[in-house]
Write a structure and sequence with these properties.
Two copies of one chain form a homodimer.
Chain A: E1 6-8, E2 10-12, H1 15-18, E3 22-25, E4 33-35, E5 40-48, E6 56-64, E7 71-73, E8 75-78, E9 84-88, E10 94-99, E11 114-118, E12 123-126, E13 131-132, E14 136-137, E15 141-149, E16 156-159, E17 165-167
Parallel strand pairs in A: 1-17, 2-11
Antiparallel strand pairs in A: 3-12, 4-5, 6-15, 7-17, 8-16, 9-12, 9-15, 10-11, 10-13, 10-14
Chain lengths: 169, 169
């Protein structure tokens, strides 16, 4: 039996390329404005946080273990009730795997699966309901996470192991 | 004429000491729980973000210039419509100056003015309406900021220069 393995190319993370999935959190390429008697420069509204009315938004820290490549992906998840943002706190690079939903919104569109590489100064925010792989840090490090807490099911999962998706750098 | 200068002691930032003003965002001293097939450890709900119904919560980056000590403080501010969180992205230490409101909530209680020092791995979240000094980073660096955006007045300011408050380390 031959197993077909799909190797996904890894793209640099840019605002435009990530637009269908959410926002890139970085100062690069943005103008911002001076605040606090010029002691700080504010790059405002880089990510828009979202929750349903039954939830609330909170900050958490994920302490991530560095993953070895190549990686075989076996699942995706999505949060139907709120957005989810990740910002590296130790300058660590990480991979972001995202996918559009199928037209009926029930499944994912395998052909749209994409992998992005953060340079470690870039965070991301997944829009509500965007299919993504759980956090894939390339070295040990902490991430500040902004997401929705509260009752109700806020995590759908799907097994993608039949697709045999691999990531190599 | 003799000017009376009040020199404020600088306290280490701890969850308990900061409780009247908001939350400390750090893993230290917390248990957390394993997630994502043990590839991450989640320290959840470290800070509770808040906005009024007319606003929304967003992430921004403040690029701060390092401040020289001693510092003379001349104003405090508060955000009546939402919380405001700061997390250092480059491990930089920063000072947090906070103050309780007067019993009528209109002014601040000078006797309660406190200064805390973050070790650079600690962020903070000011509860809605807490009087505080604008960001005082001790070296150049970026901070991830989670706060309320939207219409309406979300910044009260007060001149504290008559108190001649100084900070020294």
């Amino acid at each position: 039996m031959t197993v077909q393995i799909t190797r996904l190319p890894v793209a640099n993370l840019t605002t435009d390329a990530f637009l269908p999935f959410g926002q890139v959190i970085e100062c690069e390429g943005r103008v911002g404005h001076s605040i606090n008697d010029a002691s700080s420069h504010r790059f405002s509204d880089l990510a828009q946080l979202e929750t349903d009315a039954d939830g609330r938004l909170a900050l958490s820290i994920f302490r991530a273990s560095g993953q070895m490549l190549p990686l075989m992906l076996n699942r995706l998840e999505r949060h139907p009730l709120g957005s989810q943002a990740f910002m590296p706190l130790n300058g660590q690079s990480f991979l972001i795997v995202v996918c559009l939903a199928s037209p009926d919104q029930m499944h994912f569109n395998a052909a749209s699966l994409k992998v992005f590489l953060s340079n470690g100064r870039q965070g991301i925010n997944f829009n509500r309901g965007v299919w993504h792989h759980p956090l894939l840090s390339l070295s040990d490090g902490d991430f500040l996470v902004a997401d929705r807490l509260g009752s109700g099911n806020n995590c759908d999962e799907i097994d993608i192991s039949p697709w045999c998706v691999a990531i190599e750098l």
